[in-house]
Amino acid sequence: MDTIGALKAETGTIILAHYYQTGDVQAIADFLGDSLELARKAMTIEDASYVIFATVDFMAEVAKILNPAKTILMADTTASCPMANQLRAGTVQDYKQVYPGLPAVLYINTLAEAKAECDTICTSSNAIPVTKAIAAEWGVDRVLMGPDRHLARHVQVMTGLDIIAMPEKGCCVVHDQFGAEDVNFQRDQHPDALLIVHPECRPEVQDAADFIGSTKQMIEYMERDLDREYIVGTERGLIDHVLALHPSAMLYPLAPVPTGGICKNMKKTTVAKIQALLEIIKDGGDLAPYEIMVDPSVAEGAKRSIDAMFTYMQQ
Ligand code: SF4
User: Fold this and answer.
1) Is the distance from the beta carbon of residue 177 to the nearest atom of ligand 1 less than 6 Å?
2) Which of 111, 175, 214, 263 to mutate to test ligand 1, by most ligand atoms within 8 A of the CB atom?
3) Ligand 1 within 6 A of 83 CB?
4) What strand order describes the sheet that includes 120-122?
5) How far apart are CA 70 and CA 46, in angstroms?
């Protein structure tokens, strides 16, 4: 068994990682997923003493909220999602005051304090059915949604509902990099390739796409026909993941420059940092700098919104 495998076994630790992690971090993970899959997995963690989240902070927070008794750790707690930090609890309260009677749907990419103020969360996999379900339940055709204005616009196009983005200009700094010039350049280079993009991309990119979906949905779309070429409009870790599974897949990142489409925060977690954390666990060291904690009163409200998503998904 390799060093990391031995440390995991000795300490009773499992590693959950997002598809946007580097290929070597993905390779040492016990479970890989997008935010919805990680949230679902977090609900069923039973046999591990420690859980290391190789993600950004909001995903580890969701795991802690769903498993308050578990020790949830991050190898680098500064790995924080810039988009999640664009929407504070006070902004959600302000919008709800301005638009009384409208439900607030928040993307899972939010801080726990914001989740505690909304009516349900959603992920990019289920934003459309969850938003339709809550609008029907409330008997409204307008819904507040944040923090990604591009996801909000995608849901508006797909549902016909009036979606009010909060804040007005929230976005993912990684997906918002892609523009029409990238689409045109890569279409010229790869005229037979299908363009598949994440709904966090700008409208001009979404409108040019052959398929729009969450990371998991993009993987499933490509796996349906691996003889095709794909231009992939999301974080580059997804390409690493698909190439690890299917080395002959023909995938091209939407941003042609090597630095394009990389989430610096997702890449803060490294194998070396994970190994160092495993050694601290093994030696009985101080885990406080690595442990994810959520204030119980905030966690209670956030859990209500997370539970609401799972309920709306079944409708
Ligand atoms: S890719 Fe975008 S939404 Fe995802 S963690 Fe990075 S900044 Fe946040």
Assistant:
1) no
2) 263
3) yes
4) 120-122, 104-107, 142-146, 162-165
5) 9
Kindly state if the Cβ of 109 falls inside 6 Å of ligand 1. yes
What mean pLDDT do residues 252-268 have?
Answer: 91
Whole-model pTM: value is: 0.93
**85-103: per-residue pLDDT in tens?**
999 999 999 999 999 999 9
- Place 225 in a pLDDT band, splitting at 50, 70 and 90: very high
Cβ-based burial of 267 (10 A; exposed 0-12, middle 13-18, buried ≥19): middle
pLDDT tens digit sequence for 43-64? 788 788 999 999 999 999 999 9
Ligand 1 center to residue 20 CA distance, Å? 9
Q: Where are the beta strands (DSSP E) in the chain?
A: 13-18, 31-33, 50-54, 71-73, 104-107, 120-122, 142-146, 162-165, 194-197, 211-212, 229-233, 250-253
The tokens 């909220």 sit on which residue? Answer: 65
